Amino acid sequence: MRRLSLLDTSLRDGQKSLGINLNVNEKLEISRQLVKLGVDVIEAGYPAASPVEFEAVRKIAREVKGVVICGFAGANEREIDCCAAALKEAGRSRIHTGIAVSPLYMEKKLQLTPGRVVELAVAAVKHAKKYVDEVQFYAEDAFRSDRAFLVQVLERVIEAGATVINIPDTLGYATPWECSEMISYVMNNVRNIQRAVLSVHCHNDLGMATANSLAGIKAGAGQVEGTINGIGERAGNTCLEEIIMTLYSRRGSIGIQCGAKTRELAATSRLVSRLTGVPIPAHKAIVGSNAYTGNPASLGEIGPGENAPFVIIAPDTVGLPEDDGVLQIQLGPQALQQRLDKLGYSLNKEDLDLVYQYFLHSADSKGAVYDQELRELMGEAGVEQRGILIKNISITTTGASRATATVTLDLDGDTVTEAACGTGPVDAVFKAVDLLVGERVCLEDYMLKSVGRGRETLGDATVKVRYGDNGLVIGRGVSSDVIEASARAYANALSKVKTMIRENAAQARV
Ligand SMILES: [Zn+2]
């Protein structure tokens, strides 16, 4: 079977999703899980973009081994130098540089002639090659380029030392048959293509990123680029979990394999969702909470030559338990750990203690906790560790639309209380938290849904807040009380804002 290389760009392209602000430690945690999952290359970031981004790539390069660490850089010496500096301590490193090749982009975005674009592309690859053996070149907006020109650029950059050629569908504009045709065209017309690996990088604007990538892979691409849960700007990137499970489930007919351990998919997906604050839709393929409901998993799954009519993937293949177990209140921390293990979470002692407290609190008010609720609690326990903890909330309402909230927070170790009035209980709580935390943010969106079963479910709140010019920050909170869930979500968003301010200030001093 042909071997496909997986490049995960959750931390570079994926991070461009509105509202995602991962700090350095969160990026490290995701990188370590990606190694467990078995990706071949981690694109860790764009070092020249900001000092924070540089530091993240540098740390990942230093601490995450057993995988190629890739950094992104535009086609100029300054960005390539910066990228190389960030990658210095990596075991194996790669620089990903490139330039736009479509007439529209060259003219309007770059204001350069095609001849100049070729010169810059070649110079960038040569410069990157001084630092690393593996140089990946991207031909931005390749699908709208002139084919003869594209072939010319690719031949020249391979000659200059590029070892991987990325053909991105930058705007998510291509169809699967065009992808297939494009990869075949490049393979058949670029003279020296056997000296490089072809890579596909698709976006999901038309909902075809996975289909487009697979078409490119089938036509001969040796590397696919994507993100966990498909995070990314606009409609997102190719979902790596979908690619991995398609290659696995249909291995008989596709005949291409990758090095991923499918059983790590659930844990990876949950971790990325928890740390980015971007929820996974219930119906999401492979990792959604409804993706396996009603599947009689005992019938097995489709493998080469098999024929199981009711199920194509058994949940434990992606690391999910087959039953939605119920946990009773009497459960001790050890039994909880075993259950969490089965659900794909691995926790250190401190985190387990914290989750156990949440579990007890939740089980206390409801009597029992389902797996799905446990997952939500995991998200909650994870995000609550960032410095702002809701200790107590009391509400008094007067008349139809006025409320007063008294909120007590644990703020970086101090217990503080404040009261505020609002048009309703949620508004009043948010205002009290604002007074306590003291950061000026603007609430852009607020969403509340229920998780679990029956009337005794948990409320899952998501807020989006805007802070200064730094864009949107997402916060999530879960509780059996919807007001508390909302307060936690809001406090979570403000914690992230505070972390952002702290990281930026720390960088500014260097
Ligand atoms: Zn992209």
Radius of gyration, whole Å: 24 Å
Instruction: Output the CATH topology of the largest domain.
Output: TIM Barrel
How many structural domains in the coordinates?
4
Q: Note the gap between the termini.
A: 50 Å
Secondary structure: helix percent: 40-55%
Give the full name of the CATH homologous superfamily of the largest domain: Aldolase class I
CATH architecture of the largest domain: Alpha-Beta Barrel
- CATH class of the largest domain equals Alpha Beta
Strands in their spatial order, largest beta sheet: 1-2-3-4-5-6-7-8
Mean pLDDT across all residues, rounded?
87
Structural class: alpha/beta
Q: What compounds sit in this structure?
A: zinc ion
- How does the overall form come out from the CA principal axes? globular
Taking pLDDT < 50 over at least 5 consecutive residues as the criterion, the unreliable ranges are 295-299
- What about the largest sheet? 8 strands, parallel, barrel
Number of strands: 17
Strand content: 15-25%
* Helical stretch tally: 16
How do you describe this structure in short?
It is built from 16 helices and 17 strands.
